Amino acid sequence: MQFHERITAELGQLKERDRLRAVPEVTSRDGRFISIGGRRLMNLSSNDYLGLGDDQELRRVYFESCRSGLPPLGSSSSRLLTGSHPLYDELEQELAGLYGREAAMVFNSGYHANTGILPALAGRHDLVLSDRLNHASIIDGMKIADARWERYPHGDYLHLEELLEAARGRYRQIFIISESVFSMDGDLADLRRLVELKKRHDAVLIIDEAHGTGVFGQRGLGLTENEGVTGEVDIIIGTFGKALGSAGAYAVMDRVVRQYLVNTMRTFIFTTALPPVTLGWSLLTLRRQVGMQVERRALLALASRLRSEISALGFEVPGESHIVPVTAGADSRALKMAAALRDAGFLAMAVRPPSVPENSARVRISLRSILGWDDIAGVAGCLGGLRR
Ligand code: PMP
To answer: What's the pLDDT tens digit per position in 48-69?
Structure first.
């Protein structure tokens, strides 16, 4: 079959199964609202959890600070060639200092971090144990790595321990990798348990705080800070693209691990560095969010109220964070719920396989500290009309 015919047929199959995706026609995005296809909707689908990405005042502060010289808009090369910049050093030192760790490293994105770290560290004689609901970028990282990998049922640390026992003595090194705040279920990993397991089994623990950064912890360092384990997790990964309202990602670690990654991590070595203008903005939003405890508390309280209102209607709403997934089951039902919300003026996306396991489609509401109860009070009422 000709190339175009074949892929057109595959697209047709996706459409039949309610799985065809398209890039939304975003015409503007400001504060609480987003305009899609000319319609202004309350944005319940943004990862800008603290509203920093849309903060006009902070943007002005940044532009003001650039008056004496705008940081370059491009970086010219990869970091090991000529693409590094004093802002990289400043940002990495700031991160290491905040986390009380020896070293930090900034990456182009969380996707680069997750597809680069495991392949660099885990080789042929190693084993990676990963939570079943870990993000696609972690799965891709495991697929690229030469190591063996296995997934343990989501949050099932007894099962993880069995896998660790069974692996004892059979591998050079065992790695455990988990998200802290799960991106699609909004629930939390038991980080103290994971630290205890990693210690007992001499494993290396990697925690992806993509959705925890900025939201959890006294200084917004994530769930690791909340649980008092920032010094005990071998590598903590965070992103600048979500609560920090910028782009890129980081990890904190011991100095020797950084040195090893600088020498072996292909998604670090073989990609053009981030534009310094982005690094300067990341530094500003990172510093700003440290003091946003009031916003963090308000965000989690808002989520808890919405969760109880929607569960009271008979929906299953897992998790305990600012990510509020409303379980639908069938893809078509998730699409129907998202459409009803959209008709009522709310943008919350239907999430379908392969982003989530089969038969667990959902509407994913992600809340932000710039939203108040009045902004979202209509959500439960709207879903109430669709009760099972
Ligand atoms: N890890 C997790 C848990 C994520 O949810 C995401 C983004 N959705 C990433 C990593 C990738 O981060 P980035 O968007 O910076 O590539």
So the answer is: 999 999 999 999 999 999 998 9
Say if pTM beats, i.e. exceeds, 0.95: yes
The answer to whether residue 45 is domain-embedded is yes
Q: Is the CB of 48 under 6 A from ligand 1?
A: no
Is the distance from the beta carbon of residue 366 to the nearest atom of ligand 1 less than 6 Å? no
Name the residue with the closest Cα to ligand 1, atom 10. 110
Please work out whether the CB of residue 239 comes within 6 Å of at least one atom of ligand 1: yes
Indicate whether 308 and 185 sit together in one domain.
no
Choice from 105, 154, 183 to test ligand 1 binding pocket (greatest atom count within 8 A of CB): 183
Instruction: Provide the CATH number for the domain around residue 324.
Output: 3.90.1150.10
Of 252, 268, 290, the last residue of a domain is 290
Strand, coil or helix: what is 35? strand
d(CA 258, CA 66): 30
Sign of CA dihedral 196, 202, 203, 206: positive
- Structural domain contains residue 165: yes
Flag whether pLDDT at 353 surpasses 90: no
For residue 182, give the ligand 1 atom closest to its CA.
3
Distance CA 153, CA 249 (A): 27
Does 256 lie in the same domain as 181?
A: yes
Query: Which domain covers residue 126, as residue numbers?
Result: 75-290
315 plus 282 within the same structural domain = no
CATH number at 81 reads 3.40.640.10
DSSP annotation string for 232-263: TSSEEEEESSSTTSSS-EEEEE-HHHHHHHHH
pLDDT band of residue 187 (cuts 50, 70, 90) is very high
CA–centroid distance, 300 to ligand 1, in Å, is 21
Residue nearest to atom 5 of ligand 1 (CA): 183
- Cα–Cα distance, 54 to 216 (Å, whole number): 20
Atom 9 (ligand 1): residue with closest C-alpha? 110
The alpha carbon of 111 and the centre of ligand 1 are apart by a number of angstroms equal to 6
The residue among 290, 313, 338 that closes a domain is 290
Structural domains counted in the chain: 2
Predicted-assembly ipTM surpassing the 0.95 threshold: yes
**Apex 112 CA angle, 36 and 283, nearest 5:** 75
For the Cβ of 137 lying below 6 angstroms from any atom of ligand 1, the answer is yes
